Amino acid sequence: RDLFDQASKINPQHQQVWQAWGLMEWKLNNVDAARDLFQRGVWANPRSRITGSVFQAWGMMEAEEGNPSLARKLYKLGVKADPRSPATWNVWIRLEEQEGRFERAKELRMLEMESNERVTTYTGVEIGREDVEMASSVSGTLQWTVNQISKWFTSTTTAESQSESSESKPLPFAEE
Protein backbone atom coordinates (compact mmCIF):
# COMPACT_ATOMS: atom_id res chain seq x y z
CA ARG A 1 0.00 0.00 0.00
CA ASP A 2 2.82 2.35 0.78
CA LEU A 3 4.27 1.93 -2.71
CA PHE A 4 0.89 2.55 -4.35
CA ASP A 5 0.39 5.59 -2.13
CA GLN A 6 3.81 6.96 -3.08
CA ALA A 7 3.23 6.29 -6.78
CA SER A 8 -0.17 7.99 -6.70
CA LYS A 9 1.40 11.06 -5.09
CA ILE A 10 4.23 11.18 -7.61
CA ASN A 11 1.83 10.96 -10.54
CA PRO A 12 -1.85 11.25 -9.60
CA GLN A 13 -2.82 10.98 -13.30
CA HIS A 14 -1.26 7.52 -13.67
CA GLN A 15 -4.41 5.45 -14.05
CA GLN A 16 -2.68 2.09 -13.93
CA VAL A 17 -1.51 2.85 -10.38
CA TRP A 18 -5.09 3.43 -9.24
CA GLN A 19 -6.30 0.36 -11.13
CA ALA A 20 -3.60 -1.95 -9.73
CA TRP A 21 -4.14 -0.60 -6.23
CA GLY A 22 -7.88 -1.16 -6.58
CA LEU A 23 -7.30 -4.75 -7.73
CA MET A 24 -5.02 -5.39 -4.77
CA GLU A 25 -7.58 -4.03 -2.31
CA TRP A 26 -10.29 -6.15 -3.90
CA LYS A 27 -8.17 -9.30 -3.60
CA LEU A 28 -7.65 -8.40 0.06
CA ASN A 29 -11.48 -8.22 0.44
CA ASN A 30 -11.50 -4.43 0.83
CA VAL A 31 -14.25 -3.93 -1.75
CA ASP A 32 -15.22 -0.43 -0.63
CA ALA A 33 -11.60 0.73 -0.78
CA ALA A 34 -11.26 -0.88 -4.22
CA ARG A 35 -14.34 0.99 -5.47
CA ASP A 36 -12.90 4.26 -4.22
CA LEU A 37 -9.56 3.58 -5.94
CA PHE A 38 -11.19 2.60 -9.23
CA GLN A 39 -13.22 5.80 -9.11
CA ARG A 40 -10.06 7.81 -8.47
CA GLY A 41 -8.46 6.03 -11.43
CA VAL A 42 -11.32 7.07 -13.69
CA TRP A 43 -11.16 10.68 -12.51
CA ALA A 44 -7.37 10.79 -12.89
CA ASN A 45 -7.81 11.12 -16.66
CA PRO A 46 -11.43 10.49 -17.72
CA ARG A 47 -10.83 11.11 -21.44
CA SER A 48 -8.00 8.60 -21.72
CA ARG A 49 -8.47 5.23 -23.41
CA ILE A 50 -6.89 3.68 -20.32
CA THR A 51 -10.07 4.70 -18.48
CA GLY A 52 -11.67 1.78 -20.32
CA SER A 53 -9.31 -0.63 -18.55
CA VAL A 54 -10.14 0.89 -15.18
CA PHE A 55 -13.86 0.48 -15.85
CA GLN A 56 -13.22 -3.09 -17.01
CA ALA A 57 -11.36 -4.03 -13.81
CA TRP A 58 -14.03 -2.36 -11.70
CA GLY A 59 -16.75 -4.17 -13.65
CA MET A 60 -15.04 -7.52 -13.16
CA MET A 61 -14.94 -6.91 -9.43
CA GLU A 62 -18.62 -5.96 -9.34
CA ALA A 63 -19.58 -9.03 -11.38
CA GLU A 64 -17.70 -11.33 -8.99
CA GLU A 65 -19.17 -9.51 -6.00
CA GLY A 66 -22.66 -10.33 -7.25
CA ASN A 67 -23.53 -7.00 -8.87
CA PRO A 68 -24.04 -7.89 -12.55
CA SER A 69 -26.23 -4.86 -13.23
CA LEU A 70 -23.51 -2.48 -12.05
CA ALA A 71 -20.87 -4.54 -13.89
CA ARG A 72 -22.83 -4.09 -17.14
CA LYS A 73 -22.91 -0.33 -16.64
CA LEU A 74 -19.18 -0.26 -15.98
CA TYR A 75 -18.41 -2.40 -19.03
CA LYS A 76 -20.55 -0.09 -21.12
CA LEU A 77 -18.55 2.88 -19.86
CA GLY A 78 -15.38 0.91 -20.56
CA VAL A 79 -16.23 0.34 -24.21
CA LYS A 80 -17.27 3.97 -24.55
CA ALA A 81 -13.83 4.99 -23.29
CA ASP A 82 -12.05 2.46 -25.50
CA PRO A 83 -14.35 0.88 -28.09
CA ARG A 84 -11.48 -1.14 -29.58
CA SER A 85 -10.62 -3.00 -26.38
CA PRO A 86 -11.31 -6.69 -27.00
CA ALA A 87 -10.73 -7.46 -23.32
CA THR A 88 -13.58 -5.23 -22.17
CA TRP A 89 -15.93 -6.51 -24.85
CA ASN A 90 -15.03 -10.12 -23.97
CA VAL A 91 -15.69 -9.82 -20.23
CA TRP A 92 -19.00 -8.09 -20.95
CA ILE A 93 -20.01 -10.80 -23.42
CA ARG A 94 -18.92 -13.51 -20.96
CA LEU A 95 -21.05 -11.89 -18.23
CA GLU A 96 -24.10 -11.91 -20.49
CA GLU A 97 -23.53 -15.58 -21.35
CA GLN A 98 -23.10 -16.51 -17.68
CA GLU A 99 -26.37 -14.74 -16.94
CA GLY A 100 -28.09 -16.74 -19.74
CA ARG A 101 -28.58 -13.65 -21.91
CA PHE A 102 -27.31 -15.21 -25.13
CA GLU A 103 -29.13 -12.82 -27.47
CA ARG A 104 -27.57 -9.87 -25.68
CA ALA A 105 -24.14 -11.53 -25.96
CA LYS A 106 -24.72 -11.93 -29.69
CA GLU A 107 -25.73 -8.26 -29.99
CA LEU A 108 -22.58 -7.23 -28.14
CA ARG A 109 -20.43 -9.28 -30.53
CA MET A 110 -22.03 -7.43 -33.43
CA LEU A 111 -21.50 -4.08 -31.71
CA GLU A 112 -17.86 -4.94 -31.11
CA MET A 113 -17.37 -5.76 -34.77
CA GLU A 114 -19.05 -2.52 -35.81
CA SER A 115 -17.03 -0.46 -33.36
CA ASN A 116 -13.79 -1.94 -34.62
CA GLU A 117 -14.94 -1.55 -38.22
CA ARG A 118 -13.04 -4.63 -39.21
CA VAL A 119 -12.70 -5.54 -42.81
CA THR A 120 -12.01 -9.04 -44.02
CA THR A 121 -10.30 -9.23 -47.35
CA TYR A 122 -10.85 -11.99 -49.90
CA THR A 123 -7.74 -13.72 -48.53
CA GLY A 124 -9.42 -14.02 -45.14
CA VAL A 125 -6.91 -11.70 -43.45
CA GLU A 126 -8.61 -9.43 -40.96
CA ILE A 127 -7.43 -5.84 -40.94
CA GLY A 128 -8.55 -2.84 -38.94
CA ARG A 129 -9.97 0.47 -40.09
CA GLU A 130 -6.62 2.24 -39.79
CA ASP A 131 -5.07 -0.34 -42.13
CA VAL A 132 -7.78 0.33 -44.70
CA GLU A 133 -7.26 4.08 -44.36
CA MET A 134 -3.52 3.67 -44.80
CA ALA A 135 -4.04 1.46 -47.85
CA SER A 136 -6.41 4.03 -49.30
CA SER A 137 -3.88 6.80 -48.84
CA VAL A 138 -1.14 4.68 -50.41
CA SER A 139 -3.50 3.87 -53.23
CA GLY A 140 -4.33 7.57 -53.57
CA THR A 141 -0.63 8.49 -53.61
CA LEU A 142 0.10 5.75 -56.09
CA GLN A 143 -2.78 6.92 -58.27
CA TRP A 144 -1.41 10.47 -58.17
CA THR A 145 2.05 9.17 -59.16
CA VAL A 146 0.62 7.13 -62.02
CA ASN A 147 -1.32 10.18 -63.21
CA GLN A 148 1.84 12.33 -63.09
CA ILE A 149 3.85 9.74 -65.02
CA SER A 150 1.02 9.41 -67.50
CA LYS A 151 0.92 13.20 -67.99
CA TRP A 152 4.69 13.30 -68.40
CA PHE A 153 4.62 10.41 -70.86
CA THR A 154 1.76 11.99 -72.82
CA SER A 155 3.50 15.37 -72.96
CA THR A 156 6.80 13.72 -73.95
CA THR A 157 5.14 11.62 -76.62
CA THR A 158 3.29 14.65 -77.97
CA ALA A 159 6.49 16.69 -77.92
CA GLU A 160 8.41 13.90 -79.70
CA SER A 161 5.81 13.56 -82.41
CA GLN A 162 5.87 17.32 -82.95
CA SER A 163 9.67 17.38 -82.98
CA GLU A 164 9.80 14.59 -85.55
CA SER A 165 8.11 16.92 -87.97
CA SER A 166 10.53 19.72 -87.09
CA GLU A 167 14.13 19.45 -85.94
CA SER A 168 14.94 17.15 -83.02
CA LYS A 169 15.63 18.72 -79.63
CA PRO A 170 17.63 16.91 -76.93
CA LEU A 171 15.89 16.00 -73.70
CA PRO A 172 16.67 18.43 -70.86
CA PHE A 173 18.48 15.73 -68.88
CA ALA A 174 20.38 14.19 -71.83
CA GLU A 175 24.15 14.51 -72.07
CA GLU A 176 25.38 17.02 -74.56
Write the layout of secondary structure elements.
Layout: H1 2-10, H2 15-27, H3 31-44, H4 50-64, H5 68-81, H6 86-98, H7 102-116, E1 119-120, E2 126-127, H8 129-165
Helix pairs in contact: 2-3, 2-4, 3-4, 4-5, 4-6, 5-6, 6-7
Question: How does this structure look, described?
Answer:
By secondary structure, the protein is mainly alpha-helical. The protein has eight helices and two strands; from the N terminus they run H-H-H-H-H-H-H-E-E-H. Strands 1-2 form a two-stranded antiparallel sheet. Helix 2 runs parallel beside helix 4 (50-64), helix 3 packs antiparallel against helix 4 (50-64) and helix 4 (50-64) packs parallel to helix 6. It is flat and about 45 Å long. The relative contact order is 0.06. The model is unreliable at 118-141 and 164-176 (pLDDT under 50).
Order of helices and strands: HHHHHHHEEH
Low-confidence stretches: 118-141, 164-176
With strands numbered from the N-terminus, the spatial order across the biggest sheet is: 1-2
Biggest sheet features: 2 strands, antiparallel
What would the average pLDDT be, to the nearest integer?
77
Judging from the principal axes of the Cα atoms, what is the shape?
A: flat
- How many angstroms separate the termini? 81 Å
Q: What fraction of residues sit in β-strands?
A: under 5%
- The helix-and-strand class reads mainly alpha
Helix count? 8
Helix content: over 70%
Backbone CA Rg: 29 Å
* Number of E-type strands: 2
